[in-house]
Specification:
Layout: H1 18-27, H2 31-44, E1 48-50, E2 81-82, E3 96-99, H3 102-110, H4 117-129, H5 140-151, H6 157-167, H7 180-189, H8 195-206, H9 208-212, H10 216-223, H11 227-238, H12 246-249, E4 256-259, E5 263-268, E6 271-275, E7 284-286, H13 288-298, H14 303-343, H15 345-350, H16 361-368, H17 372-379, E8 383-386, E9 389-392, E10 400-402, E11 408-410, H18 411-423, H19 433-442, H20 449-458, H21 464-467
Parallel strand pairs: 5-8
Antiparallel strand pairs: 1-7, 2-7, 3-4, 5-6, 8-9, 10-11
């Protein structure tokens, strides 16, 4: 009989402060979403208010220090006021437009369907589970469990599948498919049913495995068709979109939203200098009136007044943390962007892509003294405007390789060569990964075959056999 023993183990757990949690959340937000977040905080916290610059000149701003009300929490007054205004309240800046997001488009189309509230909520949940490339990768039974747990709505596979079929009729064609075969078949169903389209449908429905493996001889034999008929059917298939979700986010439309760059880099005396457009972010301060309520209540012995004091104190703390978190966000973004500019200095002079150095998150983390996770949050969904274009911050990050001459080169350069080589290859005899290794070696890049395969997959380029054309 085994003996049960009780052991005591001491662990040290790091608990994040409210300020740290607030800062982490704000760092992730791009400029437009930060503005929305501030407006939401202004609406929910009566102690926080926006500064209006209409006071007479020379009048001192009434900022509030919590040290006036709590000896245990002395807070400098500068932490209760944040100035986000630039010198020019309405500076000229460039924006670029992107099409309405993929999920926004699906939700808009759902609004035109005749559904009751219960069906609408289930369909909306299904849309939320569709990946950005347009596929639904959750099985329907799991979806039913999720809907029951998260929405409190009991449903079954039959109802979920019925609503999924409704969503699969939305634009873009192929959306909501559970695999590539279903995606392509959904698209073919929307086309004029010519003989070529009908044959393509039959090939995907009945001989999908043979098609993906390019066993064309087996297909022509089983279907009793000619090579020309097969070629015409394949022509219909290759014009379909294997990633229906991507065509919304990657192109323009009449319905657009403005994306404001988070950073502006300009050349001054031949050197790149960074600034942050902050005119859309209001100045914030603590509301003096509510602070006075707290002071009055602190001197009162009544229960009601003390409860009011506790409420206002909580809101004052929240306002203090929010203002300080915005400051820390600004400093973190500023330090990170300056480190990127310093690391990629030559690129920011003229925008020459070949001057981009290999750079990973760790490089900037070491340069700024920040955590890699923090750098990742800064980089996510942020944009920089330069005199030669607007770029997402993720654009500047790539791994590196050492060329034959010992010089480190960006993997972006390797990927460009691979893409160009594959575009120019003879499609009747596509280049194998081994042959691509030889191409790179001839250009001075020593790369292993498995590395070529990895980059090819990252570029979403299939293996040679699947690139072969008749």
């Amino acid at each position: 009989m085994s003996k049960l023993t009780l052991t005591q183990q001491q662990k040290q757990l790091q608990k994040l402060s409210p300020l740290q949690i607030q800062t982490i959340k704000l760092i992730e937000l791009p400029a437009p979403e930060l503005e929305q977040r501030i407006q939401k905080e202004l609406e929910e916290n009566p102690v926080l208010e926006e500064v209006v610059d209409d006071s007479p000149e020379g009048e001192e701003k009434k900022n509030v220090s919590l040290s006036e009300y709590s000896g245990s929490d002395p807070t400098p007054s500068y932490k209760l006021y944040v100035n986000n205004q630039g010198k020019d309240l309405k500076p000229q800046y460039n924006t670029f437009s992107v099409r309405e997001s993929f999920h926004q488009s699906l939700e808009s189309q759902l609004g035109y369907c005749k559904l009751d509230e219960r069906q609408y909520q289930i369909a909306l949940f299904i849309i939320g589970m569709i990946d950005d490339d347009g596929y639904l990768r959750r099985d329907l039974e799991s979806l039913c469990d999720d809907i029951s747990f998260r929405l409190g709505i009991e449903t079954d596979v039959e109802e979920v599948e019925q609503l999924l079929h409704l969503i699969q009729e939305f634009d873009p064609a192929g959306v909501g498919a559970r695999d590539l075969r279903e995606c392509l078949l959904l698209q073919l169903a929307t086309k004029t049913q010519t003989p070529e389209v009908q044959l393509a449908t039959r090939i995907l429905r009945d001989y999908f495995t043979e098609f993906t493996k390019k066993h064309y001889t087996k297909i022509t034999a089983k279907l009793g068709i000619t090579e020309d008929e097969l070629k015409a059917a394949i022509g219909e298939i290759v014009r379909l979109n294997p990633r229906p979700g991507g065509q919304i986010d990657d192109s323009y439309s009449e319905q657009v939203q403005q994306v404001v760059p988070d950073f502006l880099v300009e050349l001054k005396d031949g050197e790149p200098v960074m600034s942050m457009p902050r005119f859309s972010v209001p100045e914030l301060k603590v509301n003096k009136r509510y602070a006075d309520v707290l002071m009055e209540a602190a001197n009162s012995a009544t229960r009601e007044k003390k409860e009011a004091a506790s409420f206002v104190k909580q809101k004052l703390d929240s306002a203090k943390w929010f203002i300080e978190a915005i400051k820390q966000r600004h400093n973190t973004l500023q330090n990170t962007m300056n480190a990127i500019i310093d690391y990629q200095h030559d690129f920011f002079i003229d925008g020459d892509e070949t001057k981009l150095k290999p750079m990973v998150l760790r490089n900037i983390a070491e340069k700024t003294g920040l955590d890699i996770s923090t750098i990742s949050r800064v980089v996510n969904c942020k944009y920089v405007q330069t005199h030669f274009g607007i770029y997402p911050l993720k654009y500047f990050f790539s791994e590196g390789l050492v060329a034959n001459d010992g010089e480190e080169v960006s993997t972006r350069e390797i990927k460009t060569i691979l893409t160009t080589s594959i575009e120019e290859e003879d499609k009747r005899k596509p280049l194998t990964d081994e042959e691509l290794v030889a191409v790179l070696d001839a250009k001075g890049y020593k790369v292993a075959r498995r590395t070529v395969a990895k980059y090819r997959e990252m570029l979403k380029i299939p293996i040679a056999r699947l690139r072969k054309k008749l």
